[in-house]
Amino acid sequence: MDLFSKFKKKKAVEDTDEGEYLLDENTPFNVREAFNTLRTNVVFGMAPSGGKSLLITSANQSEGKSTTSVNLGVVLAQNGAKVLLIDADMRKPKLHKFFNVDYTKGLSRFLIGQGTLNDSLYRTPIKGLDLMTAGIIPPNPSELLGSNRMKVFIEKAQEYYDYVIIDTPPINVVTDATVLSESVSAVLVVVHYGSTTRDDFQKAKNQLKISGANVIGFAIIGVRSEHKGYYKKYYKSYSSYGYGHRPEETADQTEKAKPADD
Predict the structure, then answer these.
(1) pLDDT reading at 237 higher than 50
(2) Using CA of residue 27, residue 79, residue 8, residue 55, what is the dihedral sign?
(3) Which fold has domain 10-249?
(4) What is the rounded CA–CA span in Å between residue 124 and residue 117?
(5) Which sequence spans correspond to the domains of the chain?
(6) How far are the Cα atoms of 58, 198, 200, 222 from residue 194, in angstroms, in the given order?
(7) What's the burial of 262, exposed, middle or buried (CB within 10 Å: 0-12/13-18/19+)?
(8) pLDDT tens by residue, 29-85
(9) Is the separation of the CB atoms in 186 and 49 below 8 Å?
(10) What's the pLDDT score for residue 58?
(11) How far apart are CA 120 and CA 105, in angstroms?
(12) Cross-sheet strand order for the sheet of 129-132
């Protein structure tokens, strides 16, 4: 069955939440180029396996993984790829804020059989970029993400999209990313300069190693830009990617919802 052939995608409104950082024509050149560099490295990093699904996580909360997920999706789509962005952080969903859409009809409802793709998928203002929101917050996110239905969904999505980018909760906080890493082609770890410690990163790396995840590298963010104004607090560069540069060198309940039958 083709899960994607018949759904009618809803168009997301174009206004973004003021607290979320979405690349546009007003973004400083160095920031756009940094994301373009990340895109190039991710494409080459995933090429050997031939996979299309990328899980993005971080060691701890508030380290920039959601902004990384969204804007990586943006630059991939701008380069001509068909991209699905999935908010798999069903504990603290955030991706809907970038596009100002309702998150409640999304992934969690789809996985328990209470929602359809038509309900869950939005067409963003970025050509080629679709969004699946997180859905209602369930009591058992890890169980849903580790379900066979989720695995099949990712497999089907890779048949329809060139890339599937999945934003997940911090790996040192909950097990969601570890569970889901078994169903994706590759993993990218976001490291926040000046915030992520050596122990934080090592713990995250060990968790992914135990799960057998294909970690293709990491992206360092949070380096302050010399540009004045709004973008100063965001990212100077995502070009530090891969295993060539170590982050430790730069920064010292209700009844459980059950997955629907496949």
Answers:
(1) no
(2) negative
(3) Rossmann fold (3.40.50)
(4) 15
(5) 10-249
(6) 14, 10, 12, 8
(7) exposed
(8) 888 888 999 999 999 999 988 889 999 999 988 888 999 999 999 999 999 999 999
(9) yes
(10) 92
(11) 5
(12) 10-11, 121-123, 129-132, 83-87, 163-167, 53-58, 186-192, 215-221
Placement of tokens 């068909």 in the chain:
82
pLDDT at 23: 87
Q: Could you give the count of Cα atoms lying within 13 Å of 116 in the half-sphere of its Cβ?
A: 11
Give the count of alpha carbons within 13 A of 177, CB side only: 35
Q: CB-based burial of residue 250 (10 Å sphere; 0-12 exposed, 13-18 middle, 19+ buried)?
A: middle
Higher pLDDT, 76 or 259: 76
Residue 127 tokens, joined: 């050509």
Structure tokens that stand for 213 in this block: 């995840």
Full-prediction pTM beyond 0.85?
no
Model confidence pLDDT, tens digit, residues 124-157: 999 999 999 999 999 999 999 999 999 999 999 9
